[in-house]
Design a protein that fits this description.
The complex is a heterodimer of chains A (about 210) and B (about 130).
Chain A (H helix, E strand, L loop, with lengths): L7 H12 L4 H29 L9 H4 L2 H26 L3 H31 L8 H34 L3 H33 L1
Helix pairs in contact in A: 2-6, 2-7, 4-5, 4-7, 5-6, 6-7
Chain B lengths: L16 H7 L3 H24 L4 H23 L9 H33 L8
Helix pairs in contact in B: 2-3
The chains are: A mainly alpha (about 210), B mainly alpha (about 130).
């Protein structure tokens, strides 16, 4: 048994992998593959937007509609939420529950701020007469940006659920695996947002 | 490995903590990623809002900054590595990137051609 020769830490992690049939890494890979398929869904929406963005049907164009400083603030909120989630994961892995909960609450609030800004923007656009039915450009815009926003909304529901799990059962292996998947989901949404602000807002405003 | 040593063998109930810590990077990696992402966000916004450069240069820098920032997120936030156990993550990512490239470039190319030849009445240059 060479495992006995190892130090306590290596031994612990080694036996955890073998004895408990730890499903963590397999689950993470499976979730990663789901994220990749989600990525292809977004690629289709991006392609539709890129093709339809000139089709404004004499309606307003992106350059007339988009407020870039507003979008920059949304971007900062989402980026900060990615970092706070990362710190939350570090605290969770270190079994520091109060600290992890504080970071998760911060992440939730930043996500809520992002979503509130996006809903405000959608409402503002519709009030100005730039509704999804106005032109093919706006249909594609609302579908793409709305799908991302819907993902963020589901991420927040999932995060609230995980906070309840962690309060009830603590930072167990199962909960850490779930949190790991959620953190991948959250970081993934931030990566999709890079595509959104670049292709929709920045290129649209040029 | 450096991150594992930051969480020295805690006598806590979770033996996989050290193993998991490796997969979640360190506070330093998140800080580094945050600063890089911040810079790569501010540059394209400043260029578009300030209109400092000609249009073509701005488009090139904006698209380049987006690609670099996506890679920064993958490395510093998602901790994508090329090591032994991580290979399938990377394989799936590369495959997805190829499909995304085909879907996006193909759609734009095909639809542009269709518009050019069929739908949009364009002022054709005299032959």
């Amino acid at each position: 048994m060479s495992a006995h020769a190892m130090n306590a830490q290596a031994h612990a992690s080694h036996s955890a992998r073998e004895a408990h049939h730890d499903a963590g890494p397999t689950t993470a890979l499976g979730f990663w593959i789901y994220l990749m398929s989600d990525c292809i869904l977004f690629a289709a929406l991006f392609a539709a937007y890129a093709v339809l963005s000139p089709a404004t049907a004499n309606g307003p164009t992106g350059a007339e509609l988009f407020d870039l400083s507003f979008v920059l603030a949304e971007t900062f909120l989402l980026l900060l939420s990615s970092v706070t989630f990362g710190f939350g994961m570090l605290a969770a892995v270190g079994q520091d529950r109060p600290r992890a909960m504080r970071w998760f609450i911060a992440t939730f609030l930043l996500g809520a701020g992002f979503l509130a800004m996006e809903l405000y923007e959608f409402n503002h656009l519709i009030q100005m007469g730039a509704a999804p039915g106005t032109s093919a450009f706006l249909s594609a815009f609302f579908t793409l940006v709305g799908t991302h926003g819907l993902h963020v909304a589901f991420g927040m529901i999932w995060l609230a659920t995980m906070m309840a799990h962690v309060m009830k059962d603590g930072l167990t292996d199962t909960n850490l695996t779930r949190l790991n998947c959620l953190s991948m989901f959250w970081h993934f949404l931030d990566i999709i947002w890079i595509g959104v602000f670049t292709i929709v807002y920045l290129m649209g405003a040029l | 490995m450096a991150t594992a040593s930051r969480h020295p063998a805690r006598p806590g109930p979770d033996p996989s903590a050290a193993q998991a810590a490796q997969a979640h990077g360190s506070a330093a990696s998140y800080r580094k990623g945050f600063i890089l992402a911040l810079v790569l966000t501010v540059i394209p916004f400043a260029l578009v809002m300030g209109e400092f450069l000609p249009r073509t240069a701005t488009v090139a820098i904006v698209l380049g900054a987006a690609v670099v920032q996506m890679v920064v997120h993958l490395i510093y936030f998602l901790h994508l590595k090329t090591g032994e156990g991580e290979r399938w993550n990377l394989v799936a990512l590369v495959f997805t990137a190829i499909v995304v490239g085909i879907v996006m470039a193909g759609s734009i190319w095909v639809m542009h051609n269709m518009n050019y030849y069929m739908m949009v009445p364009m002022p054709m240059p005299a032959h």
